[in-house]
């Protein structure tokens, strides 16, 4: 098993597997199936388990296409690659535990630069999903591409128009078609610049649907995400990735969880010191701004007041 932490409450008797271990094995099997499928098509494949970003536009890698942005924009480059990329999206923090948002996840990616067509990508993914025994309930297409792209599905899947079927990372954008199963979006095919292919399917969502693997609760998701960040080489700190890591450690503590790692122990002790300092100093500085408290003493006033209200 890749991780072991105290908030994994499924540890059984000695000599048996945990539910978490079984989930990792099943998820790994799905990723291996995808790799084998890509290689059978003659497509180069890489696995990336670090959430370190490939450029300075994000704190963590948020999409499998991030490292390929220069190739999308290079009209002289022609080729196709596939990968699995560990991703982390802090924008999903408040959604974790709902069964569809995972905070960090592994994206199954397919990227073609002026080689595959949208029709080729649709055929590829319907075939791969078929190897998993999965048939999408429906797909969505932007109305501007409805007439052109509908025939590409050849009646295999129901089609629903959706004017939100566009995607952009700020520098690369295009229309897309999205795949749905059991009311959940499982992946999409983007047509960047009208000449390229950018596909991303979430392995955890596929695993949940295909294998019936139950999603982690919020606490397990937080613990797993912390360990993914740590394994990517980051330490708790006051800036950027270190600050995010510290925030997640603090969140675990606030909701009553524990994590068997020195960073968690250190953060709990740090929070205790900060609370003591805040209680000691707050009456001396009643008019100071939250920014002053944070910059001068490293104290998040809103959080301190929230904890005191509990």
From TrEMBL:
<dbReference type="InterPro" id="IPR045864">
    <property type="entry name" value="aa-tRNA-synth_II/BPL/LPL"/>
</dbReference>
<protein>
    <recommendedName>
        <fullName>Alanine--tRNA ligase</fullName>
        <ecNumber>6.1.1.7</ecNumber>
    </recommendedName>
</protein>
<dbReference type="GO" id="GO:0004813">
    <property type="term" value="F:alanine-tRNA ligase activity"/>
</dbReference>
<dbReference type="GO" id="GO:0000049">
    <property type="term" value="F:tRNA binding"/>
</dbReference>
<dbReference type="GO" id="GO:0002161">
    <property type="term" value="F:aminoacyl-tRNA deacylase activity"/>
</dbReference>
<dbReference type="GO" id="GO:0006419">
    <property type="term" value="P:alanyl-tRNA aminoacylation"/>
</dbReference>
<dbReference type="InterPro" id="IPR018165">
    <property type="entry name" value="Ala-tRNA-synth_IIc_core"/>
</dbReference>
<keyword id="KW-0648">Protein biosynthesis</keyword>
<dbReference type="Pfam" id="PF01411">
    <property type="entry name" value="tRNA-synt_2c"/>
</dbReference>
<keyword id="KW-0436">Ligase</keyword>
<dbReference type="InterPro" id="IPR018164">
    <property type="entry name" value="Ala-tRNA-synth_IIc_N"/>
</dbReference>
<feature type="domain" description="Alanyl-transfer RNA synthetases family profile">
    <location>
        <begin position="25"/>
        <end position="251"/>
    </location>
</feature>
<dbReference type="GO" id="GO:0005524">
    <property type="term" value="F:ATP binding"/>
</dbReference>
<dbReference type="InterPro" id="IPR050058">
    <property type="entry name" value="Ala-tRNA_ligase"/>
</dbReference>
<comment type="similarity">
    <text>Belongs to the class-II aminoacyl-tRNA synthetase family.</text>
</comment>
<keyword id="KW-0694">RNA-binding</keyword>
<keyword id="KW-0820">tRNA-binding</keyword>
<dbReference type="InterPro" id="IPR018162">
    <property type="entry name" value="Ala-tRNA-ligase_IIc_anticod-bd"/>
</dbReference>
<keyword id="KW-0067">ATP-binding</keyword>
<dbReference type="GO" id="GO:0005737">
    <property type="term" value="C:cytoplasm"/>
</dbReference>
<keyword id="KW-0547">Nucleotide-binding</keyword>
<keyword id="KW-0030">Aminoacyl-tRNA synthetase</keyword>
């Amino acid at each position: 098993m890749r991780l072991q932490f105290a908030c994994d409450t499924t540890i059984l008797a000695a000599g048996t597997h945990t539910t978490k271990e079984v989930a990792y094995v099943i998820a790994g099997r799905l990723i291996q199936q995808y790799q084998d499928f890509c290689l059978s098509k003659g497509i180069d494949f890489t696995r990336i388990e670090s959430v370190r970003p490939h450029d300075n536009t994000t704190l963590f890698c948020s999409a499998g296409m991030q490292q390929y942005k220069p190739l999308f924009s290079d009209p002289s480059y022609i080729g196709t690659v596939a990968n699995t990329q560990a991703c982390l999206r802090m924008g999903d923090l408040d959604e974790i535990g709902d069964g569809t948002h995972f905070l960090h996840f592994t994206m199954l990616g397919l990227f073609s630069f002026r080689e595959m067509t949208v029709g080729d990508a649709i055929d590829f993914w319907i075939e791969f999903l078929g190897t998993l025994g999965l048939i999408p309930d429906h797909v969505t297409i932007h109305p501007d591409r409805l007439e052109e792209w509908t025939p590409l599905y050849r009646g295999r899947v129901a089609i629903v128009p959706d004017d939100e079927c566009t995607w952009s990372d700020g520098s690369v954008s295009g229309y897309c078609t999205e795949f749905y199963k059991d009311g959940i979006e499982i992946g999409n095919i983007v047509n960047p610049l009208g000449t390229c292919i950018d596909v991303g399917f979430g392995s955890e969502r596929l695993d949940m649907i295909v294998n019936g693997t139950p999603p982690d609760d919020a606490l397990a998701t937080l613990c797993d995400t912390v360990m993914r960040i740590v394994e990517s080489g980051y330490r708790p700190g006051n800036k950027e990735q270190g600050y995010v890591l510290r925030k997640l450690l603090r969140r675990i503590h606030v909701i009553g969880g524990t994590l068997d790692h020195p960073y968690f122990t250190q953060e709990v002790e740090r929070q205790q010191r900060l609370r003591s300092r805040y209680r000691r100093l707050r009456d001396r500085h009643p008019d100071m701004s939250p920014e002053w408290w944070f910059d001068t003493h490293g104290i998040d006033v809103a959080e301190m007041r929230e904890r005191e209200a509990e």
